[in-house]
Predict the structure.
Amino acid sequence: MAHSARTDCPELPDFFLLKRLARDQLIYLLEQLPGKKDLFIEADLMSPLDRIANVSTLKQHEVDKLYKVEYKPIVSTSDQLCFLIRPRIQTVKWIYVANADKATGRFRRYKIIFTPQKFYACDAVLEEQGIIGDVTTDEWSFYLLPLDDDIISLELPEFFRDNFLAGDQRWVRTAGSALHLLHSLYGPFSKVYGIGRCSKMAYESWREQVEEGEQKARQAEIGKVFLIDRDVDFVTPLCSQVVYEGLVDDIFKIKCACVEFGPDVTSSDKSIKVMLNSQDRVFNEIRNEHFSNVFGFLSQKARNLQTSYDKRRGMDIKQMKTFVSEELKGLKQEHRLLSLHIGACESIMKKKTKQDFQELLKTEHSLLEGFEIRESISFIEEHINRQVSMIESLRLLCLLSITENGKSSFFLCSYGVDHLLTFANLRQLGLLVEQQPGETLTVMESKVGKLVNDRTGGKLSDAFSSLAKKSNFRALSRKLNLVPKSDEEYDLRVPRDMAYIFSGAYVPLSCKLIEQVLERDGWTGLEEVTRLLNGHEFAVTGYGADSKAKNDAQRIILVMFLGGCTFSEISALRFLGREKPSMLFLLTIWLMETPRVSVTLISSIF
Amino acid sequence: MMKNKADEEDYWNSSKFKAFTFDDEDDEFSRLKESKRAVNSIRPLVDEDDDEEEVEKVSWSGEPVGSKTPLLFNTYCAVIGWRDYVSDWSPEETVQRMQQGKAVSLEKFRSLQDKLLLLDYAVSAHDGNVITAPLWDLFVFPEVLFRELTDRQTALRHFIHYLTESKDQRLLLELLRYLPLSTPGLPLLQYKEHLGIADENKRRDFLKSCLSLPFSPEDSVHVEDHYTLLERQIIIEATDGHAERGGKQEIFQKFPRKASILNMPLITTLYYCCFYHYTESEGTYSSPLNIRQTFKLSEKQFFVTALAARAKLKAWPDVDALFTSRNWLGFTRKKSPLSFQRVVDVLHKNSAPTQVLQDYVALVDDAELRITLAQKHKCHDIVINTYRDLKDRQQLLGYRAKMARGSAEERKINELLNNSQIRWKN
């Protein structure tokens, strides 16, 4: 059950360095505006900022008051205003709108700090509004936020949407820079693998940056890197999560490794914010477990705790003194954590039983297996007809479409024709698949192929590629053995493969790919798979690193999900890291979970 | 990295680089602008110098210093302290420098060809930030920009995204009008505009004007439905609002409307009509049957919605009637397009009492499922009868323990257990 750490584990790189670099640079930038100043912070930067520099640090560097950017008029008496924002046009515009100083003849100093970088479009907005001289700008290259021993995040919620939906490549360089940062601190990497268009571009951008700079010879702390685009595998994030950490995220929303448990969990009238990482000993033992094991584990833990408390009985004064000074504090903390997670479990159970969770899972598993499709479709249709949760309906519809090419027009009746726009978005992404039977497509393919000439080439093939976004899930599933045979009993307490994260019904495609490529040290033998995934795969042996070196660092693998990954995938990779001595995972990610995927897409066309 | 003499010769002889002459009148002006840019750009350069990250420092200080510029100008730069004269980079180099956040001057790219070259290099460098930058320079004549973008999908998508983000509706619409109608997604982008129209009549008229757009056949049906639905909602809203205010119709007094029906989805509209207009003849706009007909709703869609609406009103005879069908001999029996398990769920969610629920629980085919549902909804009779049919004495004994002492249920179980006619299986 609770997996003990492998004894031969190489040490994970120390990510504290990333935090320190970011903090020092921020302080330097704040000092660029000497004297007292008010700081305006973009709302979604607040939690990440809090992990880097707390309020007292900011105060030390003469930040007077802190405000959240809320697109309202500025009420500040300070003579210096500093804005810490993402390079978003809306925010840049607000800074102008909000400052009515010019009109009133008031003189103030303004500084905008863009993070992780400034875009030319932001400058253009400032220029257009005629305030480029009044406002100075800077960049805070804060790319990576370590969230746990093995998780780093870019915390860029718009990455997915901008890149995959709007086709805007503004974050490609950012991804490359993030990789560059990791490379210069923890590299050189001995090998880089990847799949997906964005991964390839990010890889190239990183290479360029390496060439622009100078690489110092140093001891590598990260061996290999795997880059993967989110759209290579949409099936996995569409499945309901049943691993504890994933469920907690689904229900309570984990943000920056922090979660807010409401009164129903704390059994008091207060909500509390809890950090969820390996420091939480109880959480650390259950985070990767299938939910069905968690209860048993927690009650065992509670019994142990009771026994430890009971030791007090019959102690003499001296023993009691040692107990209080050495053990009691730890026990009390464990007690607190235990009751929190038990509360969370109860709350999860309550919410999940309310919504036919069993039947929902059954439907998902049938779709993954390609079994009892008619029943599944009818379940989904009833779900839609009854106007139950729109997000769930949409999620099921996408899963149906990717796995079976099925679809339902009922959705628009139940939730509004406006969602034609949502559908267009989903189609653009490949989450809803066109109803083109394989053969018609081939005929069209050849026709279009003939039409394509140099000038219009880009346009037609682009238009065509969106048309051709078809799912090959079934074929991939067969090729990679993603669905274990259902006739065998799957013991969730002793997982035998990564499928345990989906109750033994499905091995996540993304993680399976990573495993296969690392085992084969490349894509050889996976030609058919990459063809089904629309290619863009690569495997490059590193520069300046001895790939043969058999040191511990070579076992540390950085997996970068461009566009986010789910907690279930993280659990699966941790499982792989425990099982295979040659792999130990470290993840750089943009977090996202299923409802969030769909929420970002609803009802707007880019 | 010093350029050798041959390079300089090359430079003088090639027409690619614009030589700097002091007698060109325009240049006074452009120099001024360049100075301004250069001054503006000094700040980041200084910052970079102080940057703690070693890598960054090396990358910029290793740059050539004006090696490509004529000697005289080189001196000039040195005198005023420019380390990077920013104007003489090729499009490719310019893009590279822009990616690195270094100072560049786009002013020298005056010809359309140069500007497009810049754009194309930016696109091939996959840097969205840099792609949008040269677009700015082309802004002066949107038409020219539009024309060039139609053949450059990547740049076009960046531009559309930029306009959407900066909420430049005017230019976006201009662009959309310019693009060929065959551009994928274009009709939907136009259709999207309706979301910004608050007035329902104007919105309806706008939707009507959308009908002629070249949607896919499937989408065009949906858009037409959207228009028809809104048109109908406007009529219903007017009539019902009037009736509600008039206070003559009892239903509106008893169950005041919570929100306007305008812009609600079709199923919600159907629910509303099943709630307030259930018995109307098929001829009226608000008749549920008429809605079903007009929008070609499936039996299931209609059934679930009517069921929920009538249950909400506790109109049990209506609920009952939904299931009734007669076979050719005239016998009535209960039929449902929905599994009875789901029916029970719908009724339960609409707070149906146990007496109503048990009728439908009893119709669940699968014995095990029936027992689970019956237990959940406390339909004791059904549990007891099912155990009796399964001849499961043990379960019956277990169930008796859960019943209240002296209750009718307990008595019934006792009678069954004492019945010697039943052959128990355990």
About this structure: The longest strand of chain A covers residues 556-565. Confidence is low (pLDDT under 50) at residues 1-7, 436-468 of chain A.
